[in-house]
Amino acid sequence: MSWLLLRPTGRFAAQRYTGTMLEKLPEVIGHALQGMRAGLDKIVFNTLGMRQGMASIALSSVAFADHAPLPSRHTADGEGLSPPLQWAGLPAGTESLVLVVEDADSPTPNPLVHAIVVGLRPTEGKLDEAAIPSRDNAGAAGLHVGRNSGLQAAWLPPDPPPGHGAHRYAFQLFALDGMPAFSAAPGRDEVFDALRKHALASGLLIGTCERPDGSIKIKKTAPAGPLATG
Fold it and tell me: Which Pfam families match (predicted)?
């Protein structure tokens, strides 16, 4: 099936597609899109071209292990809260941190961005659960959040299409040698340019999410008819 048949156009169409449309695709379409995946080679971590410091930051979460499923409370099937993260092993000279979360297996030409946070203080050592704003959650005060693929400065909960297989969500943390002046809600391109100039080291943590066939149920309503009597 052609990707052009599925891709909406325009700002608001993009919001609808990335925010809710994937989870509502029929499973037959999920199967048809099996071979269409952005790929891990296209995430920021692998396209930045770092020669030193790559994967030297230890990034982890108490909510899930590396390459293990994300708990439903952090996906569109649950509360949709951003997961807790913690890090160690920052290099000398680290002035700030940047977090980028991407879906490496989205049926799109490039990975979908699920979260961007810039200007994190290295001394914090962690990001608490629900720190990034999301639906019905204001997030932590003072956090500088960038735009996700839904054009919102928020956490976009994972919502892979039924039948498309496991999706890998790449939590990528970067140590910077300064504090770049980002816009109010920077997007991926702006952040990528800053990382090319200032990144010292990086860390990667993968969480997965999958919706098996039939996981999205469509309620069927019987047609109205005359009431039985007697």
Answer: PBP
CATH entry 3.90.280.10 includes domain 8-209: yes
Query: Which tokens hold the place of 4?
Result: 């052009």
- Ranges of each domain in the chain: 8-209
**pLDDT class of 30 with cuts at 50, 70, 90:** very low
How many angstroms separate the CA atoms of 113 and 102, rounded?
Answer: 4
Among 193, 175, 196, 174, which residue's Cα sits nearest to residue 183? 193
What end-to-end distance do the CA atoms of the chain give, in Å?
53
Sheet holding 58-60, edge to edge: 58-60, 85-88, 126-127
Structure tokens at 116: 């961007």
Interval 70-103: pLDDT, tens:
999 999 999 999 999 999 999 999 999 999 999 9
Tell me which DSSP letter residue 137 carries.
B
pTM above 0.85, yes or no: no
- Which of 201-218 are b and which e, b meaning 16 or more Cβ less than 10 Å from the residue's Cβ? bbbbbbbbbbbeeeebee
Q: Is the pLDDT of residue 22 over 80?
A: no
